[in-house]
Amino acid sequence: MFILCLVGNLGAPVDQWAVGGITLTALMDVERRHGKFKPVIKKAMVELEGAPFKKFASLRDEWAIKNSYYNPGPVQFTGPRANDLNHTLLLELGAKA
């Protein structure tokens, strides 16, 4: 059994870190492949009519010329940025970016 481990509260001393885990099978789906059912990680296709892709498409030409990108860094579990939503989710929820 494979387990995906997560560690949180990294700003605290090591003895106060919070550790958790989830089995990889909990993240998987079952699909029929070559006549047999197999556990797979479900594909997530890009929705070409969705707001995140449309935003990307509107900036694609500019990004091809300029070196402009946004990297929010790793997921924040605590601290001032912990409750921020990522840009993709904001666009999916109808925000203007």
Structure annotation, total helices = 2
Largest sheet: 2 strands, antiparallel
Strand proportion, as a percent range, falls in 15-25%
Instruction: Specify the structural class.
Output: alpha+beta
The oligomeric state of the chains shown is single chain
Cα shape: flat
N-to-C series of helices and strands: EEEEHH
Q: On the 0-100 scale, what is the average pLDDT?
A: 82
Share of helix, binned:
10-25%
Strand order of the largest sheet: 1-2
End-to-end Cα distance: 42 Å
How is the secondary structure organized here?
Elements: E1 3-8, E2 18-23, E3 29-33, E4 36-40, H1 51-65, H2 87-92
Antiparallel strand pairs: 1-2, 3-4
Structure described in brief:
By secondary structure, this protein is an alpha+beta fold. It is built from two helices and four strands. The mean pLDDT is 82.
Structural overview:
It is a single chain. A hairpin with a 2-residue loop joins strand 3 (29-33) and strand 4. The mean pLDDT is 82. It is flat, with a radius of gyration of 19 Å. It has helices spanning 51-65, 87-92, and strands spanning 3-8, 18-23, 29-33, 36-40. A two-stranded antiparallel sheet has the order 1-2. It has a two-stranded antiparallel ribbon with strand order 3-4. 22% of the residues lie in helices and 23% in strands. It starts with a strand and ends in a 5-residue tail after the last helix.
